[in-house]
């Protein structure tokens, strides 16, 4: 099993030279070494070889995926790039790249600005701007007002559902407060520092991401995995522990994972999901008012008789609302 490590690790290529795709990629780098010194590790462009992925190209050339997409707007299907396709990784043959403006830490509000237009202009989300500027009234921005621009880790929320499953099963990955329009890499491995890329996904205009990926076939029941989102901006988000279980241990009709607000019910505590669904809760101690993630099994309605079903809760964790 060969795992790709997190970005910025110098040993990435050395560790995996014996895999076909990376070997081909490394050979391509050697051929362009002279140009790479002046521009990127790959020169101004890279020609796709059999088995290559854009993630491997970005890691080898030390160019972010976001930058690759900026330089190749007509790239098409990122999961089906033809062998021989030339991928630009630098803006000009001489390696001089004046298209990227220096990162800004503040923004001065101009006439006609809205919080959404500012977020789009500086490459962040409205939620991230509000988190960074607690005293700002989003409905009454003043011309000349100075806003702090989030940099680095903006406390992006990241969760996966469910938190257990068999090899080959499906996992839903969700995140918020990412940079709108960025391409990020979703991966999984035994640790957050040792992982294999699963797919590249583009962040939505509101800074949110939602995608389905799989539990890797190389994982064995009893393994504990970590799902990651590599943002190509110096931040790698990691999930809570994911337990790999045998398929026979999964009861697809009964197992359930939900999140929402706990409240007092008629006979049992209840949980109201973000979609407005109401569930009765049994099996644990609950605190009214908390926003939680729960996992458990569907149960008979018994005495609760409230909502669309009852969950016999195995685990409960207080979390921040998405």
From TrEMBL:
Q: Could you identify this protein by its name?
A: LysM peptidoglycan-binding domain-containing protein
InterPro entries named in the record: DUF5818, LysM, LysM_dom_sf
Q: Which domain of life is it from?
A: Bacteria
One Pfam family cited in the UniProt record for this chain: DUF5818
Ranges where the LysM domain occurs? 44-89, 105-149
Q: Which PROSITE patterns match?
A: LYSM (PS51782)
What is the species of this protein?
A: Roseovarius spongiae
């Amino acid at each position: 099993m060969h795992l790709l490590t997190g970005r910025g690790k110098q040993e990435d290529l050395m560790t995996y030279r014996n895999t076909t795709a990376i070997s081909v990629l490394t050979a391509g780098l050697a051929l362009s070494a002279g140009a790479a010194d002046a521009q990127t590790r790959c020169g101004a462009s890279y020609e796709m070889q059999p088995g290559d992925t854009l993630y491997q190209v970005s890691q080898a050339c030390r160019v972010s995926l976001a930058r690759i997409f900026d330089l190749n707007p007509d790239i098409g299907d990122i999961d089906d790039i033809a062998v021989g396709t030339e991928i630009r990784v630098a803006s000009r043959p001489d390696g001089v790249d004046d298209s990227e403006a220096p990162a800004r830490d503040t923004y001065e509000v101009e006439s006609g600005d809205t919080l959404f237009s500012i977020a789009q202009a500086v490459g962040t989300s409205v939620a991230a701007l509000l988190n960074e500027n607690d005293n700002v009234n989003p409905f009454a921005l003043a011309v000349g007002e100075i806003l702090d621009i989030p940099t680095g880790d903006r406390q992006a929320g990241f969760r996966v559902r469910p938190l257990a499953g068999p090899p080959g099963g499906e996992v839903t990955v969700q995140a918020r407060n990412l940079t709108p329009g960025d391409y990020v890499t979703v991966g999984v491995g035994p640790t957050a520092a040792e992982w294999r890329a699963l797919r590249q996904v583009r962040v939505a205009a509101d800074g949110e991401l939602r995608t389905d990926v799989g539990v890797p076939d190389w994982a064995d029941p009893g393994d504990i995995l970590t799902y990651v989102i590599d943002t190509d901006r110096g931040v790698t988000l990691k999930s809570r522990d994911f337990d790999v279980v045998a398929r026979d241990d999964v009861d697809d009709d009964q197992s359930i994972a939900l999140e929402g607000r706990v409240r007092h019910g008629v006979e049992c505590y209840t949980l109201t999901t973000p979609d407005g669904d109401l569930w009765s809760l049994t099996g644990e101690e609950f605190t009214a008012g908390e926003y939680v993630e729960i996992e458990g099994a569907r149960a008979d309605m018994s005495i609760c008789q409230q909502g669309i079903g009852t969950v016999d809760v195995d685990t409960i964790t207080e979390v921040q609302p998405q």
